[in-house]
Amino acid sequence: MLLFTANMDLAGDEAYYWDWGRRPDWGYFSKPPMIGWLMGLVGWLTGNAEWGIRLAPLIFGTATLAVLFALARRLFGAATAFLAALLILLTPANTGLNLFFTIDAPLLLCWSLALLLFWFALDKPTCLWRWAALALTIGLGTLSKQMMLAFPGLMIAFVLTSKPDRHLLRNVPFWASMLIGTAFITPVLWWNTQHEWITLEHTKHHFETKSLSFSKWLSRTLEFPAVQALVYSPITYAALLVVLFYSVKHWSRMDRRAHYLIRFSAPALLGFFSLSLRQKINPNWPAVFYVPAFILLAAWFTGQLPFVARPFWKTWSLRVGATIVALAHLVLLIVFFTDLKGHKKLNEMRGWAETGIQAGQFLDRVPRPENTFVLATGYRYDAAQLAFTMPQHPRTYRWERSGRVLSQYEVWPGPEERIGDDALIFKNGNAEPRPLFAPLTQRFEKIESLGRVEVKLGEGNTRIFDVFLGHKLLSWEKPGTPKPKALSTEH
């Protein structure tokens, strides 16, 4: 992990969320506000240092493991808790969770903590503080990712189907904890009403389907379990499926502790398998539902369940998991000390520090620094990375050629608030310099070419931005608004 962070800059999403953090709000283009708030807090505490963003997911990942250890120990004892934590630690998914500061880090912590607090509340339903803590955790999780809204539904399903806990249907704190927790989504909904329900519109795209041939449908469907096996380590993933299958099969012999874990994992995972038959599933979507499954798996390995696990499963889950983690570190050594470090995917996270330094030098030389804004013409990551890596940390705008709202940069006020100002424009370049797009140049009094940002990324790979100075912005149409007829036929 240290080798990776020493050789790589922030991922595009991390820089993007960092830019959100500079403008705290109740919602953003594609996500609830928590990741933006956390990025803002980390930036404030560390002076927008990259090491702060790198440290944050490690803290969240460690806290999540600690909470899961506490839950497993409460349910099955210290030996099972240690094994559950070790099994999770030896997965590629955990490595990614601790490397990249995205929405999954706070979500998994809140989900794991909610599982622990709900079990505490079940043990002592008269304790109002336990229900209050659960309500707060559900609320914070809801502000992290919409998936947290599934937790109250699973709470109700558990109480309905668990005879010892059915009395909670008449328990006011039980209902209050769910209502208060889910009420945290209210300001997010209000924000969306002010922004044409942009988050909902974005989310809908994840569930769009298209007609496929049988071979392509089969390939897409098989991709889901294959990727899950890779993310959670192949033997461990197979063991998770086996223990869930046998747990359901031996349902009547399982105790309340096992029932608790099964209800918070098996139905949802089955739902995702079913959903994969009709559409593509992102690998991280079902992550929270594997959390209780790992504890159940550890309980099986330690003889806490009524059916016996063969030594093969425990031995090879740990062996294969440890081997994959070791290989991951070995691969990093090979990649970063050979020409493989110039691979396209790795290049997307390399060289941004130098890119920002060169870009910042252009900003230092503009004739009207107080009346000059930074404009990127490419993908949202370009705007975000420039904002983070330029020493001035400028407010960065983005030009979306399609005129559609495709990122947070189109949600925020754009250059329409900078009419009359100059723009330092960065355009993704090729080997040969190319002029700016005509629809963009017509919005300025004149365009002046300033030069190029060129950063060598490896053998034969260079990041290039052509740099222009747009003198006096004349007009700007906010994406999503009708265009004047004079511009409607531009190409």
From TrEMBL:
Keywords, sorted A to Z: Cell membrane, Glycosyltransferase, Membrane, Transferase, Transmembrane, Transmembrane helix
Record field: transmembrane: 26-44, 51-69, 75-92, 99-122, 128-160, 172-191, 229-248, 260-277, 289-309, 316-337
Pfam families hit by this protein: PMT_2
Keyword Membrane carried by entry: yes
One GO molecular-function entry: pentosyltransferase activity
Biological-process GO terms, alphabetical: lipopolysaccharide biosynthetic process
Membrane topology: Multi-pass membrane protein
Main subcellular location: membrane
Protein's cellular compartments: Cell membrane
GO CC annotation, single: plasma membrane
Domain Glycosyltransferase RgtA/B/C/D-like, first and last residues per copy: 30-191
Protein name, as recorded: Dolichyl-phosphate-mannose-protein mannosyltransferase
